[in-house]
Amino acid sequence: MGHNQSHAQGAHSHDGGAPESSDKKRVLIAAVLTGGFMVAEVAGGLLTGSLALLADAGHMLTDAIALALAWYAFHLGDKPPTGRHTYGYGRVKTLVAYTNGLAIFLVAIWICYEAWQRFQAPPPVLGGPMLVVAVLGLLVNIASFLILHGGSRESLNMRGAILHVMGDLLGSLAAIVAALVIMATGWMPIDPILSVLVAVLILSTAWSLMRAAAHVLLEGTPAGLDRDIIAQDLQTSIKGIHEIHHMHLWSIDGAANMATLHARLMDGLDAHVAVDAIKHRLLTRHGITHATVEIDFDRRAEDGRRRDEVRGVSSQPRHLH
């Protein structure tokens, strides 16, 4: 029986290369912009009496925290694996995403509650100042979006940050529309109505975020991979493999995909050659950067019987490196 673990070159790089360093700076700048204007938007919402502004400020608060945690995840990603954390700190980004999703749910529920209260007795809203604050918020969100848009498209951390800022953009647009309607018609209910729309946007984003994070935390099969298809591909593309079984696919952080599997070989196939071929196929065809391959020489090995009962095979396992 053979055992092999492989890391694709660069799959767990901690050299703090230029692209990741640039993404880290972009996320930090966006976090400072979002957090700074969030304070101004809270003040504007309290001054004008606009729930739409407060709702957008709540969204910006969660996004500022999300961006700050995304920056911290990049920071932790620079650290190498340790004896206690042998996979490194890649899963911190997943934990951050799940926590952000829970926080967004709480903010959205609060917005819906406030909107219901205001439907009962709509308070006066100062349309002019509300419009000024909302437009400034839109400009800040556009700046943050452009900063993040220049970052890596491959980083899930960056893509999540961009999605947060896009949500803020829509929230600012909703506040602008509410301000214009109030100034033109004096119809105050538009403010809580659009606030609820922002809350629905937040809830849908939070749900998607939490589902994706939970799938990774539960070590579900990464999107775009199919265990049975990959097993069949290995069996048909590599000569001498009798069967692929006990295959498990998962991801540490939603980006780096991993696999463990057992391969039963036909007589005459060298185990080292088979392991190298399997690793190469998993990496180049399916994007799996880390693989653990267990070689079975006889079906009885899977039944837990004594290995020394298998004729011609040593009773001690061999480790292939």
UniProtKB/TrEMBL annotation:
Residues in coiled coil: none
Annotated TM spans: 27-47, 53-74, 95-116, 128-148, 169-187, 193-210
Region (Disordered): 1-22
Major site of localization recorded for this protein: membrane
Presence of keyword Zinc: yes
Cation efflux protein transmembrane domain segment(s): 27-218
Record's keyword annotation contains Protein biosynthesis: no
Domain Cation efflux protein cytoplasmic as annotated: residue spans: 226-296
Annotated compartments: Membrane
Short name of one Pfam family: ZT_dimer
Keywords noted in UniProt: Ion transport, Membrane, Transmembrane, Transmembrane helix, Transport, Zinc, Zinc transport
Annotated membrane topology: Multi-pass membrane protein
Biased composition range(s): Basic and acidic residues: 12-22
NCBIfam families xref list: CDF (TIGR01297)
Entry's family note: Belongs to the cation diffusion facilitator (CDF) transporter (TC 2.A.4) family. SLC30A subfamily.
Protein name: Cation diffusion facilitator family transporter
